[in-house]
Structure prediction request, 656 residues.
Amino acid sequence: MSANSAAATSSPQFDTIPKLLIHHAQARGDRPSIREKDFGIWQSWTWSEVRDEVMSLAGGLAAIGFEPGDKLAIVGDNRPQLYWAMVAAQVAGGVPVPVYQDSVAEEMQYIFDHAGIRFAVVEDQEQVDKLLEVKEGCESLQNIIYEETRGLRDYEQPFLHSLSDLQASGRDWNRDHAGELDKRIADAVGGDLAIMLYTSGTTGRPKGVELSHDNLIVTARNAAEFDGLTADEEMVSYLPMAWVGDCIFSLAQAHVCGFCINCPESGDTVMTDMREIGPSYFFAPPAIFENLLTNVSIRIEDASSVKQWLYRHYIDVARRVGVRILEGDSVSGWERFEYFLGSLLVYGPLKNVLGFSKVRVAYTAGEAIGPEIFDFYRGLGMNIKQLYGQTEASVFITMHPDGQVKPDTVGVPAPGVEVKIADNGEVLYRSPGVFVRYHKNDEATAETKTADGWVLTGDAGYFGDDGQLRIIDRAKDVGKLNDGAMFAPKYLENKLKFFPQVKEAVTFGHERDFVAAFINIDLEAVGNWAERQGIAYGGYTDLAGRREVYDQIQECIEKVNVDIAEDPHLSGSQIQRFLILHKELDADDGELTRTRKVRRRIIAERYGDLIEALYDGRDEVHVEAEVTFEDGRKGKIVADLAIRDAKVTPVQSAAA
Prediction:
């Protein structure tokens, strides 16, 4: 396909993902569709091979009783067979429901019960064991199919099926029912339900978001044309399959454009595998870019003095002129020459180490990214942009156009999307990607989507004079201090998380006299620093309580305060007191969602005593807490947490 490959599939006859699969198998059957690294070797499947795999899997599902309208749970890491299962469910007339692979059994059981899931395709023994536990209390679940056979030889339950056996029976079923699956594909239309994705459940139980084929395909096509994506892109698919971003990028856009996705060997090998693939199209949440920069900073600290000087000198050059060069602005000949040398000595090798050498378009979303981090990557010559999206929007609400990329905005409305700001400051949108409904929740659907199709995002924002949207915070989280100053917790927390020492932050201030904060240190970054300083420590709790670590965090907070003092809207919400938590906030403890968003209500309930200590003048608070270790053992943490004051920057001095 040519550069307008997305437009080439815009015919009404390609209104479902299975129809797009059949089209690519016919039009470009010998081109790679998906790769997977296994035992250190990349294995590849062409579009025609993927069609055959999907059809045999769809036939196998039909052979064990899968019927049109049934739900198929998908649980596991990014694997070709799991992507095939998603499309196979659609071929058979059903709906795939991907589930976060790190969900505990209780979380899975809620989704299985709520969605009425009868069938599940899972990756390996770990997921089989979780589903066996789920099945005991889940009346609907009838069949479990597993891809990896290791460890499952002695599992003799009749409802367990290996994927390879299922595909073998599927080929037999397809011969006996010739043309049946082709008819189901032809009869399906764009308005049919394509997938159900569960929200992260930040404020309560996750909601099942029903998205149609039209939602996915039209939105994916519009965004692909916006960025000029072609069939020649390479993408590394490493983010959870249950997340809407992976659904759009690795499923919808891959089928709209016909490009190849690549599944890494494991979560631990993503960076190595990226270097080998050299993706041209890349997406990562801000946390990934932050972690990469933290790792770079750690490695530079361990490098020779010459390498440290080269890195710092040319990174400074990149900060001064890199973004201007990327945007096509005018720079002097000497600056361009310096940047060229930096590309040879620093930027090129650094991008190669990170796997970004061939990236043509990169996006980040989910949380606001720190402007300094954003400009760092763009300074290296990497075309990283921000988008603003939601599961309910099939991702895309606003996007950064090339040449108009600003670190403090999330861009302009995406193609086909209308955006407006309500009187209370809430962002509303209407688009082809707007979800059908929340599954079994008409009340929540009506609260979120108006009769004429406008969706209430729950986010507060505004359009600047440049026509670009700026998101402040969740509308319900934006509050006021007792003196009337605006308090936007997520905005403050994202600024704190720019620093490599800070892994997580939670701020408080609504209806209080000042802003205070909980801090989680980044154990790797701070631990590496402590080792270089000769500071011995016995684990997270010990390191977090060290005076030297408090000094570092205080310095970070006071730098944030200087920055906030320059913002006329938020200058009154500088952070005045903080403590470093004795444990890391954890999704398994219900403190974070599976997408690592803070559950503020849980934090407020669980750590109420610590919050009050921040405000009653104490300089220390005693804590005793039960924790669950990774191996399931229970333990108890007993610690005295220091509470410190942070320096506040006078607004007039910041302006001066």
Observations:
- The mean pLDDT is 91.
- The longest strand covers residues 634-645.
- The chain is about 40% helix and 20% strand.
- The CA atoms of residues 313 and 342 lie 9 Å apart.
